[in-house]
Design goal:
Radius of gyration: 16 Å
Number of helices: 3
Helix content: 25-40%
Length: about 90
Amino acid sequence: MAIGNAQQLVKETGDLSVPLAIRNAPTKLMQEIGYGENYKYSHNYENNFISQEFLPKEIVNTTFYEPGNNAREKAQRDFLKARWREKYGY
């Protein structure tokens, strides 16, 4: 399961830093050091989606969820593939 995969990865990698691009930048200092820089608000794009990375650099491209072989999860796989294309091999 995805949650089990995520928990196992945390046990293996420990506490990884949140990428600067997705950190909130409520102060001028945080803005100056790059918090929130290059973040793209998904709802401003077609289908409310824009390809961007939210994982720490140490685990970029990690797949946690693999859709199963039933009708509902096949639909989910098709949806993910339409958004992510070949990134995660859906």
